[in-house]
Amino acid sequence: MEIFKGQNLIEFAERFKTDEDCKEYLAFLKWENAYKCRKCGHEKSQIRKDFSRTCNICSDTESATSGTLFHKVKFGVRKAFFICFEMSTTTKSLSASQISVRYGVAEQTARLFMQKVREAMKSSENHPITGIVHVDEFVVGGKEDGKPGRSYDAKKKKVVCAVELTKEGKVKRFYSLKIENFSSKSLKRIFDKHIALEAKVTTDEWRGYGPIAKEYTIEQIPSDNGKNFKALHTMIHQVKSWIRTTYSWVSEFNIDRYLSEFSFRINRSQSKNTIFNNLIKRMIASEKIYHQNLVCS
Fold it and tell me: In the list 15, 125, 232, 270, which could disulfide-bond 134, CB 3.0-4.6 Å?
């Protein structure tokens, strides 16, 4: 079976006409390397009409959706595929209320599934940035009157971000994550997760980066109102505008998931042809996520 390529919605709809088409595709990706029984470890099986596999030894039957983030989806696998396709290929993103109307599902159900998709979009953190890196921090929630610059307002979500640049100064990769404050300890999280020790990092003159320079190669220069970090500030503007115009507001509990969604698409802008297939593989490989982990208690 060939993987789906492209961003054409008509072609996508023709390829995945039924739930069974989607299950066949899931089964193909799930067991493309080899089947191994989850109960006894045997590697031979029978393929059922719904594309599930039954072990030849212990007769355990495993469905194509079992153990994936599509397991027990309430509105059918085909609708779930369409939501994944739109979330991975759109440049504007979609809110749960839009998905609810477009696919005829309850808004809360749509929101929970979309959070699962965002979980799958999270970086594996296995490929840290090694080249030219610019790092900065920002707040989500807008500026306060009379309080220019960094704000410690508890209502604002504080974020640190890093962009990897090409030699021409173009964006290659982008990562961002929520932080508690602008201290060195908080800022270092993005270094530990996404930046290799050999990377050449440039930041503004915020003192919080000073202690981190003992471990990483960091050059601190004046920001000059963002003029010395044009590509990075463009990305910051884009992510803030995207959150504001699509969702109006996001919670502290969920902001990392939205940041992961934004970065997932940015980091695959050069491989849009296979971005849907990449996401489905991640949905298959992701660990089970429980309801209580997706909602703020």
Answer: 232
What is the reported pTM?
A: 0.90
| Under 8 Å between Cβ of 196 and 129 | yes
Contacts for 243 with CB less than 8 Å, ≥ 6 apart:
140, 250, 258
Please check whether residue 226 is in contact with residue 207, taking contact to mean a CB–CB distance below 8 angstroms.
no
Three-state SS string over 127-142 comes to CCECCEEEEEEEEECC
What residues contact 47, with CB distance under 8 A and at least 6 apart?
Answer: 27, 53
Helix, strand, coil % in the chain, rounded to nearest 5: 40, 15, 45
Residue 69's SS3 state is coil
Which residues, in sequence order, are bridge partners of residue 54? 46, 61
Burial class (CB in 10 A: 0-12, 13-18, 19+), 109: middle
pLDDT averaged per 10 residues in sequence order, the chain, 297 residues: 95 97 97 95 96 97 96 95 95 86 94 95 94 95 52 77 95 96 96 97 96 96 94 95 78 90 92 95 89 71
